[in-house]
Amino acid sequence: MSEKTLKFNSKTVHGGQQPDKAYGAVMPPIYQTSTYAQSTPGGHQGFEYSRSANPTRTALENSLASIENGNYGLAFGSGLAAIDAVIKLLNPGDEVVSTNDIYGGSYRLFKQIFEKFGIGFHFIGMQEAGEIEKHINRNTKLIWVETPTNPMMNVIDVKAVSQLSKKYDLLLAVDNTFATPYLQTPLDLGADIVMHSATKYLGGHSDVVLGALVVKDKDLADKLYFIQNASGAVCGPMDSFLVLRGIKTLHVRMQRHCENGKAVADYLSKHPKIEKVYWPGFETHPNHAIAKSQMNDFGGMISFVPKGSNYEEAIKIVEKLDLFILAESLGGVESLAGHPASMTHASIPKNEREKNGVVDSLIRLSVGIEDASDLIADLEQAIG
Question: Is the pLDDT higher at 120 or at 5?
């Protein structure tokens, strides 16, 4: 069958893959090598040095391209390394319009690393695409979008932002970490670049750190491949193998993440001690209609604020959780809880955090694939 005719569930297993040519191994072997024999200078079999390319990483990159409906995939040592490569497409004096409710690591990279080299960043709310246009000028070269956002679960209309980016001849990059291609494929909505912290749902088992980019355009891919090779922030073959293995079960895991996420969100929304619950699946959620139109489901990421809670009370709740593990990261088979203000978003100044809703009492959940009733029971005993 042609790969283009495969449905998503089949692409996760077979997309971009073929049995190993040496011995017919069904799973791509872990090519734990730094270099490759040449018959004459330049006479190699497609691989010469593993920073430039490695068969295991190539297998992963082909899979990434397939599941995101792209043509070219690139794998990096982390999600931040992947973002770093995108910003290196720019020059001093260029500007980026970015989501204001953004992962703290992305904010830190933008503000504390790249701003020093003369690249400007504007952090704005993008729930209304029209707001973006006010911040575009002759120096703007890139729009950076997270949707759903981290940690406020805001939903951004990728198609509308794409129309704007094309109007002004800008690149549009979408961080698709929270949704994964199981829920949305930004390239199909008009994005130029899709980014993943593959550490999260794509790997799915909290045992690897890896980043990814996927694009359709060859010229753009060539520029990114050059940066990937020249900067060298690549992932190793073992990490590539682990994420490739994770992708093969992405569809079945995401189905359970979504089911459990809905159950937990519904429970929290009815709890008398909870003031706010942020989850795109609620009809009352801002831009729920957009989420419904560009996503296949609503995911397993939830944030909430207990009533009358302050920093100390929020800390008490996350410390009392048992089945939910208090830890950084998200997207693993196990459920995790985090306190964004002191963990994932601590690098963002307090006034900036709170302006965007990341208050000291906000708690973020990554709902895993355990039994939903056990997860709810754990929240019940922790919240009281």
Answer: 120
pLDDT at 1: 67
Residue 275 φ then ψ, to 5°: -85, -45
Active site residues: 51, 103, 175, 200
- Give whole-number Cα distances, 82 to 29, 122, 173, in Å: 24, 20, 11
Whole-Å CA distances, 330 to 22, 177, 201, 299, 334: 37, 10, 7, 12, 9
Please tell me what DSSP assigns to residue 181: H
Q: How many CB atoms are closer than 10 A to CB 158?
A: 26
The domains of the chain, with CATH numbers, are 3-247 (3.40.640.10), 251-383 (3.90.1150.10)
φ, ψ of residue 301 in degrees (nearest 5): -100, 130
- Tokens, residue 357: 């809703």
Q: Which tokens sit at 205?
A: 């088992």
pLDDT at 129: 84
Span 54-71, average pLDDT: 98
DSSP 273: T
DSSP H helical ranges for the chain: 8-14, 55-67, 79-87, 104-108, 130-133, 158-167, 180-183, 218-231, 237-247, 250-270, 288-294, 311-320, 350-355, 372-383
C-alpha closest to that of 90 among 122, 114, 74, 69: 114
Task: Tell whether omega for the bond before 151 is within 30 degrees of 0, i.e. cis.
Answer: yes
